Amino acid sequence: MNATGIIPILFHENGWKDLNAQQLQNGFDALAEGQAMMRLIAELYPICRSITGDGLRETLRLLQKEIPLELREVPTGTQVFDWTVPKEWNIRDAYVKNAKGERVIDFQKSNLHVVNYSVPVRRRMGLAELKEHLHTLPAHPDWIPYRTSYYKEDWGFCLSETQLAGLKDEEYEVCIDSTLEDGNLTYGEYFLPRETRDEVLISCHACHPSLCNDNLSGIALAVSLARALQAAPRRYSYRFLFIPGTIGAITWLAKNEAKIGNIKHGLVLTGVGDAGALHYKKSRKGAAEIDRAAAHVLRHSGQPHEILEFSPYGYDERQYCSPGIDLSVGRLSRTPHGTFPEYHTSADNLEFVHADKLGQALAASLEILSVLENNGRYVNLNPKCEPQLGKRGLYRMVGGTAEAGISEMAMLWVLNQADGKNSLLDIAERSGKRFEAIRKAAEALEEHNLLRKELKSVPQAAR
Amino acid sequence: MNATGIIPILFHENGWKDLNAQQLQNGFDALAEGQAMMRLIAELYPICRSITGDGLRETLRLLQKEIPLELREVPTGTQVFDWTVPKEWNIRDAYVKNAKGERVIDFQKSNLHVVNYSVPVRRRMGLAELKEHLHTLPAHPDWIPYRTSYYKEDWGFCLSETQLAGLKDEEYEVCIDSTLEDGNLTYGEYFLPRETRDEVLISCHACHPSLCNDNLSGIALAVSLARALQAAPRRYSYRFLFIPGTIGAITWLAKNEAKIGNIKHGLVLTGVGDAGALHYKKSRKGAAEIDRAAAHVLRHSGQPHEILEFSPYGYDERQYCSPGIDLSVGRLSRTPHGTFPEYHTSADNLEFVHADKLGQALAASLEILSVLENNGRYVNLNPKCEPQLGKRGLYRMVGGTAEAGISEMAMLWVLNQADGKNSLLDIAERSGKRFEAIRKAAEALEEHNLLRKELKSVPQAAR
Amino acid sequence: MNATGIIPILFHENGWKDLNAQQLQNGFDALAEGQAMMRLIAELYPICRSITGDGLRETLRLLQKEIPLELREVPTGTQVFDWTVPKEWNIRDAYVKNAKGERVIDFQKSNLHVVNYSVPVRRRMGLAELKEHLHTLPAHPDWIPYRTSYYKEDWGFCLSETQLAGLKDEEYEVCIDSTLEDGNLTYGEYFLPRETRDEVLISCHACHPSLCNDNLSGIALAVSLARALQAAPRRYSYRFLFIPGTIGAITWLAKNEAKIGNIKHGLVLTGVGDAGALHYKKSRKGAAEIDRAAAHVLRHSGQPHEILEFSPYGYDERQYCSPGIDLSVGRLSRTPHGTFPEYHTSADNLEFVHADKLGQALAASLEILSVLENNGRYVNLNPKCEPQLGKRGLYRMVGGTAEAGISEMAMLWVLNQADGKNSLLDIAERSGKRFEAIRKAAEALEEHNLLRKELKSVPQAAR
């Protein structure tokens, strides 16, 4: 995956100046970027991940080939707020053999066959007893469900309804060759610094086994974002977390309380590869800058999309938006979890995610970050009446069309609203114009000494 | 009328804890409660009430059999703000006899036949002169209108258009055997105390003669509420007023100015027995806690309903919401007065009100009061990330269904929003969940030491 | 044009007390007023105006016959904020003659034929070269477009597409007998004083040549308004500006900075005579008193209308609403400029504007100003419960119908809301009643000592 194709489009020396939203939507080779993400997803797909253990470690080490991820290990038993880092789970093999010794359920064929975090078991039992440990999806007889038992020691197998129907009433040999022992919780962290301490958090969960949309798509998008951002001039620092869901976010927050205050904006990335529309779920604050930036970008995307109100259910935004943390972190997804039948089943496979959808999610993410990067406040240096744009070559003579890149109306809006209090996003929202048009207008006016950037960064209060 | 059937459902030792909104809507024998109200209405129906006099007194004395009402007498001539308590009106008989000596209009058949507050008259006159004192409803030829002349000394008869058509051009004997003399204005007051001085006002007018919906229905509902509340633990004191309209409310307010500040919430009850949808009319403040509680309860009732903006016309909310009083008092009705043809006619009779509608109005009133009683503010004692609900048996293991009574989503909402500023009603509104679900979740979390009630009662400002 | 017909309706000694909004909409001889405006438009139509020069001067001198306008002259080269007063342009004649010496384009037939501000030219040239200086409207082959070149020295002719088609490939004699020399920018100002310094600005542009709607209609409306207001008692002073667009507004603001703070409200009048609905464009503040007054009047007008959000494009509201000026100035128009094909063409002629539409625009303007004039704050002197209106003859006994002029509901609304903070417009908005009904109710209550005007004028903050 090579992100250099994006970089010249998005950035130049002084910032994100050349990010052209139109190109992002129509061009910038979203498909090629999405295909690179698909290759990473395919590479990670077979690994049996969980919230701890070697599958998670192996995944993070493969990501280290893409970005300079640091791996952190947190020992079992570590107290993290109200929670305790659990034992480490590892699994080598698991099966159910019939009387003939044939593997009728085989972990080697799909790691979804074993209830994640199953304790070791090696016994013989009849079908009736076995059935107490079997999980199927009657509504989708050919799909294997995904089940976990992290915080209650138990074991079980998942299989298709069709498989179950084929099981005879005979004795079975049941084997789960797993270990559940003191060890570590592993997560990956990549910090991309900038001179200021203000940072943007990008978080995705990396604990699901062979499921593509949930959440290899989020992992691949975070990697692509990191690669795009690392080569670019930036106003913010960026922190990427690849963590086990819930316990990973809680662990990071508990062990990094001093850093939480630096996080000004954040995105949880999950389920971004399916065919559905992009959905942005607002932060707990509801009108944080990231909420407004995301809504603005999706509204102007020309594609179907949904803005969801905050709710305390979902992915790790639950932790980032808990009342004692209360970060401005939203979530970018496509079809929300739990509302598509393939969710948490073997049908969330390589065919369920699409290169073009992944590429579009990258474009939208970059455009949202571009709004945050460029959302300055400006002061009109000629606030009494309009300045004479014509004598500066800014009016009519430059054409003022979308192609030429600077809209006269956008210039008039910026001049009218640039009182040092309105941000460019405020102006974009009031004018109904795309942020990029407003930013370009501000840039042109600044070059003609009609506008001055408000240097004292006024933090945008949640509204 | 026995309200004990409600009490075990609504209350237990520590408050309204067992009020189950679902039971209130579907069950709790709303019909039986409504039938008891119907019996009271039927008993009161024949009495000729007015804004003063023995009919009003007799009505209040009958209510004393139900609840320990205290009767107050305020002498004629007492100055009450801009008004003066009027002379007391009493009537023994009234009729119009034709030349044959037959009573062609007879007060004994319906007290609506006499214009309320008619001065005494005993004269003979021809039809032409008589007609100047007759009132009919041409649009409803069989109905008798209800007319009053409280503040202008006059007399008159009301009759059906059909009756009028039968009157021949002959001499009539006109008799109104009434007195209009110095006396008292009577009203009933029942104060149900609680340790704090904060109180809820329940007010209904008791001055209309044989009219069932307006307002024997309001009187019966107030009695049922009082009976239900008197046996229950309460956070608030409750004050019930059974008063003549306008002058009664003004009199009470003028003579009890020192108590007005204790009234935190209030409801005017009127016209709650007809077949129409429940209507809640907001207080002058427009977003007082009672306004939000009532809107919440009606919104979740699953039945047609309307929320009306405040206007300075209507019943005694006009006085309670005058700018110098400005209480948080709304009005609960069914079809608003003046918008149904039976309003202020003999058709507002025992057939116009219905036991099931009265019972539902009681259920809604109790649920509104339950919201006020339980609308505390809580502090999440584990605000950094979610607490581990599973290890406390609060997650999944309890089922989390509506039947089990504690919704997981409701617990997550309470934990997320319980910052000591949001009330449970705030949380119910933001989450879209029914108040009762939120309250139960808070109760469960409090029992597990995850939540603490904010003891310092923060008064909810009008918004 | 005689405005005395309006004055007895609108005013009496103590203010705008008799302005009856209903009469303004239905009657008050809007048609007669509009016909007077049409006569003024017809008189001004033939003159070749521009942003400077004798055509503008002649126009203003004709207006001096109607109202005591003062003419101001500002020399070429005067610096006005970021702009410079341009050279003065005058034109005597212009034509294009064909080989036979016939005037194929003739300024004497329509002053639109010459690009406004064309430099002098007297040359012979072939059709090809001539065409580089010709402007047509292919979509409307019989119309002459209106073109200007104020800030770039150039010359040209405008003609119909049909005329252009008739031009043969021969030599032409081209003459523009104009001068572009140091001189003055002229504008007209009429200040109608009142004891306080608070003033209302009425501004219209007077720089367009033979175009009726844009903006002879605005000029005629401003004249009618001035005539109506000069004879009337007023709370505010009124300042009328008849100025060249853009440069005139900038010049006035630059030379009168000390007076800007006195302007509390303002209206730009333009394009008010076409057949379209009235459009009010809000000020930059968006909820200034003028914005609310105009929206209120149009909402209650019973006629189609539109309220437009502020945008920094349009007429001189661009300057009045620039961030360093930021006046509460809105714009009253009919069909917005640029959205009708006749805009800036010879089709914006005497047939495009209508007496009845002009009269209705006058009625609406007067009603908007009447709201501003009368929008006081009052205090209910009997705030505890309702006062007894009946004993004062204010209730029922006066009928309370619209004809009688004082609505009971309006009185109840005023009494309920008159806490010294709500203005009459606030009360009109909350009650849904027309401002005039609310004002009359306040007047009646004040006469009965139930209401006192809040003497300390609380300036209405922009909201």
What does this structure look like?
The structure is a homotrimer of 463-residue chains. With 463 residues, chain A is an alpha/beta fold. In chain A, 31% of the residues lie in helices and 22% in strands. In chain A, the strands form five sheets. An eight-stranded mixed sheet of chain A has the order 1-10-12-11-13-16-14-15, sandwiched between helices. In chain A, helix 14 packs across helix 15 (435-447). The radius of gyration of chain A is 25 Å and the shape is elongated. Chain A starts with 6 loop residues before the first helix and ends in a 10-residue tail after the last strand. The relative contact order of chain A is 0.14. The model of chain A is unreliable at 1-27, 397-404 and 458-463 (pLDDT under 50). Chains in contact: A-B, A-C, B-C. The A-B interface holds A 81-83, 151-152, 246, 249-250, 253-254, 284, 311-313, 318-319, 321-325 and B 380, 382-388, 390-391, 409, 412-413, 415-419, 431.
Task: Considering the chains and any ligands shown, give keywords for the structure.
homotrimer, 463 residues, alpha/beta, 15 helices, 22% strand, elongated, disordered C terminus
Lay out the secondary structure.
The structure is a homotrimer of 463-residue chains.
Chain A lengths: L6 H4 L10 H6 L3 H15 L9 H10 L6 E6 L3 E2 L2 E2 L3 E10 L5 E4 L14 E6 H5 L2 E2 L21 E2 L2 H5 L5 E11 L2 E9 L6 E7 L6 H19 L6 E7 L3 H9 L1 H4 L2 E7 L8 E4 L7 H11 L5 E4 L8 H4 L8 E5 L21 H20 L2 E4 L27 H10 L1 E5 H8 L3 H13 L3 E3 L10
Parallel strand pairs in A: 7-8, 11-12, 11-13, 13-16, 14-15
Antiparallel strand pairs in A: 1-10, 2-3, 4-5, 4-9, 6-9, 10-12, 14-16, 17-18, 17-19
Helix pairs in contact in A: 3-7, 3-12, 7-12, 10-12, 13-15, 14-15
